[in-house]
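> run fold Xylose transport system permease protein XylH
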Amino acid sequence: MTSTKPSSDSKGPSTESAPAAALHVGSGDPRTLIMNNLRQSGIFVALVVIVALFAFLTDGLSLSPGNITNIVLQYSYILVLAIGMVIVIIGGHIDLSVGSVVALTGAVSAVVVIRQGQPWWMGVVAALVVGLAVGAWHGFWVAYVGIPAFIVTLAGMLLFRGLTLRVLDNISLSPFPAEYNRIAAGFLNGLIGGDGYDAFTLLIGAIAVAGYVVSCFRTRVARIRYQQPVESFALFVARMALVGAVVMYFAWQLAHARGLPIVLIILAALVLAYGMLTRRTVFGRQVYAIGGNLPAAMLSGVKVKTVNFWIFVNMGFLSAVAGIIFSSRSNGAQPAAGNMFELDAIAAAFIGGAAVTGGVGTVVGAMVGGLIMAVMSNGMQLMGVDQSMQSVVKGLVLLVAVAFDVYNKRRAGAGR
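> ok
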C-alpha cells in the first residue's frame, strides 16, 4: 500500500499539520526577519524611546500624573481623526478637509446649544448629522463622479471653512453648558474606591491589557494556521510585556491624578470598534483590497464605488466626533478651530505604519503614531521649544517615517 505522506523533497503543497508548519513560519533570511519584526514592533519601541527621552529632558515632568492627563485631554481629537484618516489612506485616498469639518461641526453644535438654547445632546446630534452629510458630499464626488480625493477634499477644506465663518457670523460662541463640557473635560473616579488613587482606572487599564494580549495571541495563532510569517515568540512576548507595562504605568498615573477621563473611554470604544471593523469585517477587507490592488479588487467583485463612498462618510462621522470633543474641550466654537488638524492626523497615520500607496495600515498603529506626535509636542512645550522649531521636528519625523516605508518596499521588491 502506497503512503500518501509527501516526501521531504516534494515540490507540491505540504499537508503537515498547523503546529508542525508553525515551526517553519518566520524562517528565512535573518535580515528579512529583522525588517519584518521592525515593521511590526518598531513603532511601539519608538514610542517608548520617545517617552523615555522626554522624561529625561524634562526631569520627569512629562510623566507626572497631571501632565499625562493633559496629553489625553489635549490630543484626543487628533487621535479620533487619525482613526478615520488611516482608513482613508488604506483605501488609497487622502482627506485634507478634516480640520475644516471639525470647525464646522463644532460651530453647528454651538449655534444649536448656545445661540438657540437647545439641550446639549441636540448639539451633539446636529454635529453628527452635519459630519455625515459632509462625508456623503465628499464620497459622492470621489466615488461616483471620479474626482481624486485630494482635489475633492482640498475644495472641501475651503468650502467648509467658509461655511464655518458664515455659521458663526465671524465671531466665537461660548460657553457650553456643563453637561456638554463634561464630554471632553469630565472624569470617572471613586466608583470602586482606592487609597490615594482611583482603583476603577487601574481596573480598566488591566482589562485593556488583557484584551490586547488575547487579541494579539488569537491573531498570531490564525497567522500560523495559514502559514503566514510571524515575529519570533520571544519578540512577541517582549512586545506584550512592553505594551502591558506602558498601559499600566499610564493607568497608574491617571489613577493618581483625576481618574479616568470620559474622553478616553470614548476613544477606547472607537479604537475597539474600528479595530474590529478593519480586521474582522467584509468592508474592512475590501478597503485593504482597494488600496492594495484596485484592478484585482474590481475583478474580485468588490463594489469599489460603494466602499469608497462609505470610507468618506465614515471620515465625516469621525470628524464630527472630533469636532464635538474639541468644542467641548474649548468650551466654545471659534472660526479658526481645527486649523492644521488634517496634517496631524495624516502624520499620525503615516508614522503609525500606513503606506503612502495604500493597502497597509492599522488603527492601533495610527493611535501609536498619534501618541508619538502628542508626546513630542507636549515634551517640546514643556521644554519651552519655539513653535517654529516644533514644526521642524515634527516635519522631519514624518519624513523619516515615510522614508522608512519606502525603504521597506524597495527591499521587499529587490528580494523577489
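The beta strands are 187-188, 260-261.
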